[in-house]
Amino acid sequence: MYIYYIPMKVIQTILSCLLITLFSGQLFAQEKTKGIIMELVSGEKIGAAQIQNLRSKTEVHTDKDGSFTIDASINDLLLIKATGYEQDTVFIYDTSLRRIYLNRINNPIELNQVIVERMTDSRLAAEIQREKIAGKYSDASQNRGGIRISPSRIFSKEGKQARSNYKLLVAELEKRAIDRKFTDNLIKELTPLDGSELALFKERFRPSYKFIQNSSQETLRVYVMDSYKKFNEKK
Are residues 156 and 195 located together in one domain of the fold? Predict the structure, then answer.
């Protein structure tokens, strides 16, 4: 029986190579998220804004053009701060370049479709809650029981505007929920569609918000494949 002795230097070299390989693999696995921080209403770029990954605690700042790059993986949450602006958070659900809009402190937002589309998810949720309360014209009485109705809230210009804003905001929320699941990548994975045909398919067979909320990923895949069959039949 032969016993082979491996020199210590060889063992150290092997261990060093393994550590380097593991470390390199970790670096390679890190994902970069790029973005631009802008003012919500004017679209002006914001320099020196602070971006922090709440999971890893990594921090970076925007340059004079409002641009930044940070290590962030899918499902990470970024905290955004800038002097003179309300802080906000951004959820990372893909690796595409993202434009993040901040609102100035104490600056009332006059809503329109463009402004709504620019809002981050957390800002959108906050505005939905605010307009919901502002447009509410009935309250359940805790002391006397029953429901109290306020005519001034029903017929006032502010109440009507708040309810209109609420519908606009909720529509944007539902649109984003659909877009995050009914993606180009999913459709391309299951069908040969691309370009104008892909856009036409997405327009014709865009699922409802209710369907998206109640469907698993597998159910959505089946929906895409069934819809593709119908799409070909209509062609």
Answer: no
